[in-house]
Amino acid sequence: MSVDVASEARYLTFTLNGEAYALDIFHIAEILEYRNLTVVPMAPDFVRGVINLRGRAVPVIDLAIRFAKGSTAIARRTSIIIVHVNGVPGAGEAPGGRGDGQEIGILVDAVSKVETFTPEDLEPPPAFGAGIHADFIGGMAKRDGDFIIVLDVGHLLPAADIAALASAPPDPADDAEGASRPAPVS
């Protein structure tokens, strides 16, 4: 998938290791404050664990690890962006009637704001030089004389990994709303 430049679109911007990124709000289900995660044994390193979100196990990936840029340090503004990924085998109907797919959490340093990008603001992904694998990038958005990396949600986590994590049981210590004791903040 690449950025559709046919019309203006809205994107949620966030920071990760001091760099600006964006996700199309069409894929975003909700934004949560960081909460304790249940570690899933033998999961890839970039999968920090799962959260219980209203009785559903939702895997949470650390984008910094996924992009080979260290790991996200948990701080006061650390957030989990819940996104919907379509076409996950065996995931079934997603809540809210979104069709086949799976919700995953993306751990980020801080959520910034929603931006509207016009077709003139968006460029195709670069062939090199962004510092992350080109498959993760849907495009580049120009803003305030700099670029915001627009991510391709469908390539952040392989479908087979999402389907395997979706079957992980939720943490019984979490209540029905998915709340858990807060983690220490640095």
UniProtKB/TrEMBL annotation:
It comes from the Bacteria. Residues 8-162 form the CheW-like domain. SUPFAM superfamilies: CheW-like (SSF50341). This is Chemotaxis protein CheW. InterPro entries: CheW, CheW-like_dom_sf, CheW-lke_dom.
